Amino acid sequence: MFDRRNFLGGAAVASLAQPISAQALRSVPLPAADLYGRDEDAYWQALRAQFLIPADVVNLNVGTVGSSPRPVLKAIFDGFEQTEQMTQEGSEDYPIWGYGAWEAYRKPFADFMGARVEQMAILRNCTEANNYIANGFDMKPGDEVLISDEEHGSGEMPWIMRSRRYGVAVRKFAMPKPPKDAAEILNRINDAITPRTRIIFVSHISTSTGVILPAKDIAALARSKGIISAFDGAHAPGMIGFDLNDMGCDLYTGSMHKWLFATKGTGFLYLRDRDVMDRVWNTIATGGYDDPTRMADRYMQIGSSCIPTLMGLNAAIDLANAIGMDRIERRHRMLADYIHAEMMKRGAQSWTSPDPTLRGAIATVNIAPVQRMELQDWLWKNHKVRIRGGNPSKLRLATPYFLSRADIDRFLGLFDAYRKMKGI
Ligand SMILES: Cc1ncc(COP(=O)(O)O)c(C=O)c1O
After folding, report:
1. Cβ 126 under 6 angstroms from ligand 1
2. Which domain holds residue 16?
3. How would DSSP label each residue in 145-207?
4. Based on the domain organization, do 102 and 203 belong to the same domain?
5. Neighbours of 22 (CB within 10 A)
6. Of 265, 284, 318, at which residue does a domain stop?
7. Do the Cβ atoms of 237 and 203 come closer than 8 Å?
8. In what order do the strands lie in the sheet containing 120-123?
C-alpha cells in the first residue's frame, strides 16, 4: 500500500512543509535590474528568495523536476481565480486548453525557443511529446530507429512498445563514458547508421550524465543521409540558451517544468515544417487532428486541459527573459564546473564530459564504493540536501542558478563527512 509518511521521507522532512498564502507569493520583490552589475552574488541570492524551497534546503536535483518560483505560482493562482468565474468574453469561450490554438501561450514559448508559433505544440510533458514521435511515422517492419544507450524511459519505451507491436527495429549506440569531445559522439552515431535507419532519436542533454550532445551536427548528419532527426530536450529549455530553427532538427520535445521552472504539466513538441507534419500522425485524435492548415496546433488538440498551467508557463518565460538566458547559462555552467572539479579532487570518475562545453548544469560522477541510494537518503533525511543518481555509485549533481557556492560547499562538506563516517 502507498505509504505517504514513507514517501515524504519521515517526520524530519514532512515537518519542512509550510503553508503558503497568496499574499506571501506577492511579498518578495524581484531583484533590481542593476543589482547584477553591482553585486552578482546578491542578485542570485535575491532570486533564491523567489523559490519556496526552505532556506535550509539545498536542492541539487532539478533533473527530475523544478520548483516553480513565486511569479509562476502567482500566475497560476490568479489564473484559477480569473478563469473559474466562467466570465469569458465570447459565448463559446471556455477556460480549457486542448481545443483551439491558444497562441497567447504558444507564441511566447515559440519565441523563447527560437521557433515560429506554427511549429510549436504545447503538450503536458515530454513523455507525451516523445510518444507522438514514436507513434507518428509510418514505418515498415525492419525499419530502424537509432537511439543512444542513455535515453530516458520516456524516450526509449515508446519505441520499444512500437517495436513489440509492429516490428520496427530499435538500434542502440553506446555513448562514450565519458565522451572526450563532440566528434566522438558524432562518430558513434555515424557508425551505427544502416541503410534501414529512418529516424535518429536522441537526447539533447543526457538525463544520466548531463552530456550535451552536438545536436546541430547530428541534425546535419541525419539530413545529409535522408534520415529524420528527433531530439528529446527534456533538460534543455531554461538550462542552456539555444535556437531550435538554427539547430536544424526535424522534431524536438521537451519539458518546461524542469529547468524553466514552469508549471508541472507542461511539455512541448516542435515540428520543423509542413513536410515533417505531413509525415507525423497525431497520437491523440479529436476534432481538427488531421487539418493540415492548422500546422503544429493540430497536435495540441488534446481534450480538456488546464489553462492556468499555461499562464504559469508564460510567467516562467517572463522570469527567464527578465534574468536573461545568457546569464542563467553562465551561472549554471559555473556552478556545475565547480562541483565537478571538487568531486574530481575527491577521486570521482567523471561521467559527464571532461570538455566543459559539453555540459550545462548537470555534473554526473561515479564514486565507488559509495552507495548512491544510501548517501542520497542520508543527505535528505538528516541534512535536507537533495541529490539523485544511479545505482550503485553514480551521483547526478544538478546546479540550478538559485544555488550558491556555499550551498555546494555544504553538500561537499557532508559528502566528506559521510565518507569519513563510513571509512571509505
Ligand atoms: C531525457 C528525459 N526525457 C524525458 C523525461 C520525462 O519528462 P516528463 O516528466 O516531462 O514527461 C525526462 C525526465 O526526467 C528526461 O530526463
Report:
1. yes
2. 4-60+325-422
3. EEEETT--HHHHHHHHHHHHHH--EEEEEPPPSS-SSHHHHHHHHHHH--TTEEEEEEESB-T
4. yes
5. 12
6. 318
7. no
8. 120-123, 267-271, 251-255, 228-232, 197-203, 144-148, 169-173
Residue 310 and residue 339 in one domain: no
- Specify whether 44 is located in the same domain as 163: no
Q: Last residue of a domain, which of 270, 290, 318? A: 318
What pLDDT score does 10 carry? Answer: 42
421 CA → ligand 1 middle, Å: 35
What per-residue confidence (pLDDT) applies to 16? 52
In this structure, the answer to whether residues 308 and 409 fall within a common structural domain is no
User: For the chain, what's the residue count?
Assistant: 424
Q: Is 238 left (phi over 0), alpha (psi -120 to 50) or beta?
A: left
Q: Please report whether residue 108 resides in a domain.
A: yes
Dihedrals phi, psi of 209, to nearest 5 degrees:
-110, -15
- The verdict on the CB of residue 232 being under 6 Å from ligand 1 is yes
Q: How far apart are CA 354 and CA 348, in angstroms?
A: 12
pLDDT in tens, 32-47: 989 999 999 999 999 9
Q: Domain total for the chain?
A: 2
Does some domain include residue 78?
no
Element at 284 (helix H, strand E):
none
In this prediction, residue 5 carries a pLDDT of 38
User: Which residue type, as a one-letter code, is found at position 49?
Assistant: A
Q: How far is the CA of 127 from the centre of ligand 1 (A)?
A: 6
Mutate-to-test residue for ligand 1 from 64, 122, 132, 154, highest number of ligand atoms within 8 A of CB = 154
CATH for 383:
3.90.1150.10
Q: pLDDT digits over 43-65, tens only? A: 999 999 999 999 999 999 988 89
Ligand 1 mean position, distance from CA 255 (Å): 7
